[in-house]
Amino acid sequence: MPRRLAVIDLGSNSFRLVVFTWVPPDEPRWWWKRTDEIYESVRIGEGQEDSGELRPEPMERALETIELFAHFCRATGVRETRALATSAIREASNRASFLRRAKRRSGLDIRVLSREEEAHYGYLAAINSTTLTDGVTLDLGGGSMQLVQVADRLERDARSWRLGAVIMTERFLPDERVKRKQIKALKSYVRDELEAAPWLDGAGREDRRLAGIGGTVRNLAAAAQLAAGLPSYGVQGFALTGEALDELIEQLASLPASERGKVPGIKPERGDLILAGALVIQTVMEVGGFDALESSEAGLREGVFFEALLDDHDPPLFGDVRHAAVMNLAAQYHADFTHSKHVARLALEIWDALADQGIHGGWPEERELLWSAAMLHDIGTAVDYDDHHKHSRYLVLNAGLPGFTPREIALIGQMVRYHRKGNPSLGEFEPLAQEGDEGMLARCAAVLRVAEQLERPRDQTVQGTEIAVLDGMVELRLHADEDVTVSRWAAARQAELFERAFGRELSVVE
């Protein structure tokens, strides 16, 4: 029986309720996904910088929203809730009074996270949604910023500062038009504050990466993606380069605050805050020597959820983020695992044998993307059998594959798209491609289609394969104890596609 958990994130800028539904990992077909969400731009921290108190109007907005969230949970039958308050409420001098009123009006017990706890949950969100191994995670909210030092995927040190977008806007950029001296003062202040984390300076460590979460990160990544003319289906794994961020900051600084929310990718309700947040991130990248910030669509709420999902792990981390993402997506859309795993095994067996014969280079990344596509090739049947290869691509692109970059997700989507028919091409995703990606797609689509056809009867009759290269021809010999006429016939029909991909004729024999 699936479980449901509502995580209520009471941030300094926005309040968000997210419902997660999951089947625990100890079940054979475990999965998890976000199934509902309510977002409100409450700005409870508005004006707090002056007195240290939560002001009456923001407090009332906050209390109304918390009351709404409680009604929603009761109406939808979500019994397990975790309500968490961060920077603005944590630092408020009238915190106790506010929490009492919130309890009285909503019935919710709100847990105020310490700075260390807030940093920890941001770290869990970033590490479980990216492939970051060594480097730093960044979580920038409305009231505070958290940085966590990461080594071998483990949390080594954490720091939190009152450097959130709301705080920095009110302190340094309160006017409709920004002045250069204000920008200089903000960055100088941030740079001084960051001296408390000497490990941030990574001089000589080119292997370190920076991964970020939070609304500011997502908005900046979306804006950079659109500015570059790239296909946009989410910013998960998108690398916001320092150069792209610099250009965005120049554009934002040239606009009045009321106009910044009109920049494509920037949400209107975040427009007046986005410049200060961008400048904080820019300074972190400069101090840390990072060329890019890897964005994640996860947030503190996902970090809290991962703690519940992986409660038997210490720390609660996926062993392999990319593998977990693929298996999760396959399970969500009721993949026939017996069939998909067999297709994946045959595909990798053929791919490895072709590499051993020197037909291609045996690149590890290509092999992993091929496996991912093989596991996901049929998930589109959850929509309809007709055109299920196209439905599968849509789900790959839009349902989420944490741990993969937009380019890799596009390649997996195209491999899935061409597992049945058509001539593989990058199509609309060409702007994302690197040199050699067209050839990779052709090879993987060909191998996946052959493997799929070998499993055409969906009975695992073809137990294995063997490759031999004879006079320039690739002979694919099938291992089976029963009749494989259908499998051999179906695979042989892909000879033309195989020859276009590998420059060799294909012969399928028993």
Summarize the structure.
45% of the residues lie in helices and 17% in strands.
Helix percentage: 40-55%
- Beta-strand level of the residues, as a percent range? 15-25%
CATH topology of the largest domain: Nucleotidyltransferase, domain 5
CATH superfamily of the largest domain: Exopolyphosphatase. Domain 2
Structural class, by secondary structure, is alpha/beta
Description:
The structure is a single chain. The chain is α/β, with parallel strands linked by helices. It has three domains: 3-113, 2-Layer Sandwich (Nucleotidyltransferase, domain 5); 116-300, Nucleotidyltransferase, domain 5 (2-Layer Sandwich), CATH 3.30.420; 322-458, Hypothetical protein af1432 (Orthogonal Bundle), CATH 1.10.3210. Helices cover 45% and strands 17% of the residues. It contains 19 helices and 14 strands. The protein has helices at 48-51, 56-76, 87-91, 95-106, 115-127, 165-172, 180-193, 215-227, 242-253, 271-288, 300-309, 321-332, 337-356, 364-376, 388-398, 406-417, 437-454, 485-492, 495-502, and strands spanning 3-10, 15-23, 31-40, 81-85, 110-112, 135-140, 145-151, 154-161, 209-213, 239-241, 292-295, 464-470, 473-479, 505-509. The strands form three sheets. The chain has a six-stranded mixed beta sheet with strand order 8-7-6-9-11-10, sandwiched between helices. A hairpin with a 2-residue loop joins β7 (145-151) and β8.
